Amino acid sequence: MFADRTPDLTTDLAALEDQARAALAPEALGYVVPSAGSGATARANREAFDRWRIVPRVLRSGARRDLTCDVLGTSMPAPLLIAPMGVQTLAHPDGELATVRAAAALGVPYVHSTQAAHSFEQIAEAGGDAPRWYQLYWPTDREVCLSFLERAKATGFSTLVLTLDTPMLGWRPADLNRGFLPFLRNVGIANYLTDPAFLAKLDKPVEEDPGAAALHWAKMFPNPGLSWADLPFLREHWDGPILLKGISAAEDARLAADHGMDGVVVSNHGGRQVDGAIGALDALPAVADAVGDRIAVLFDSGVRTGADTFKALALGARAVLLGRPVLYGLALAGQEGVDHVLRCLLAELDLTLALSGYVSHRGLSRESLACAQRSAP
Ligand SMILES: Cc1cc2nc3c(=O)[nH]c(=O)nc-3n(C[C@H](O)[C@H](O)[C@H](O)COP(=O)(O)O)c2cc1C
Ligand SMILES: CCCCC(=O)C(=O)O
Question: What PANTHER family does the database record attribute to this sequence (predicted)?
């Protein structure tokens, strides 16, 4: 499955998915690539990018460009982060370790998923001093939640991303048909299996009864009871910036700002949760209008190219999170593959800015784009 080879990776990141399909085992393929239900949301994500077109400008002295930026106190070489994605060992045995190493080498912030196949401590060791954020899936057990926050702080994660579009898993036919859920095999619950508060609740050591550990995780992962009233608890126990991820409605973004959050990530989880949801890029302008001057607005879902990144930034995102393409690079060539994906995206973004007449993403606005009409069916 993970042949020892250095494949010729395409520089067309949108086409990388096709290359990666061949490198992924069937179960991994069924988990990573597909979306919820009929796939309507994932299609809407891509259609929204196709509808917006860049309007290039000329003769604007663009010889020197600067993509660097600061988002909520984190410096980055470009407005780009790696989206939190769990269970990365499904793509490659090195999993998140390869991803964080590639990210660290370039200074691109890595966002560590609660559902990672490697623990906070392993990621901190592999990632060194490079910027790292932590994505929280808030478990129903508050002791375990607090323990996660403490470990994230102790291991150098600066910023918290609370994901809210996954109070339980969406209807994902590719997984349901295969009956495959990695977590029930204790894959993707490394943060739990190394957590003292979690381990203390098990009747037997994990080695003696791994199934019981997985079931215990399964009891505390779905947390549909969370509400806005719970946010002060998080604010009280996390000193750094907090962003809410999985926001599509402008009103939710306003509520996030009203509740003292530092930012939102406009995202529909890459179409993996609600089938038939609004395309993420279609949701972005209203959110940016509602709160863009109060809190940081970040974006993910459907970003595949430098031009896509340009469009999201022009529509009000302060930075963009890259999702599946990272896993495709990882599946094809481990750390080298992730490095390839990040470098391609950064280079293509720089080139798109240059060719469109911008020296920095800071000059982008809605004027940089035009909305193309849908062609008649
Ligand atoms: C395999 C996989 C695992 C994911 N795991 C998480 C996760 O643990 N936490 C989270 O907040 N989002 C998770 N996501 C969603 C991503 O953070 C991001 O929102 C999404 O991948 C963006 O869409 P894109 O892949 O189409 O670019 C996951 C996505 C994939 C593909
Ligand atoms: C239990 C959460 C699973 C990780 C995730 O967010 C995803 O598969 O989309």
Answer: FMN-DEPENDENT ALPHA-HYDROXY ACID DEHYDROGENASE PB1A11.03 (PTHR10578:SF143), S -2-HYDROXY-ACID OXIDASE-RELATED (PTHR10578)
Catalytic sites, residue numbers: 269
Expressed in angstroms and rounded, the spacing between residue 322 Cα and the centre of ligand 1 is 9
In this structure, the number of other CB atoms found within 10 A of the CB of residue 349 comes to: 24
* 1 within a domain of the structure (yes/no): no
Q: How many domains does the chain have?
A: 1
* Ligand 2 pocket at CB < 6 A: 86, 115, 166, 169, 183, 221, 269, 272
Confidence label for 180 from pLDDT (cuts 50, 70 and 90): confident
CATH code (residue 221): 3.20.20.70
- Average pLDDT value over all residues in the chain: 96
**pTM score:** 0.97
Contacts 24+ apart (CB under 8 A), 138-143: 138/162, 138/223, 138/226, 138/230, 138/234, 139/220, 139/221, 139/223, 140/219, 140/220, 140/222, 140/223, 140/225, 141/197, 141/198, 141/201, 141/220, 142/233, 143/197
Bridge partners, 319 (sequence order):
298
Predicted ipTM of the assembly: 0.99
Asked if residue 150 belongs to a domain, the reply is: yes
Atom 4 of ligand 2 has which residue's CA nearest to it? 86
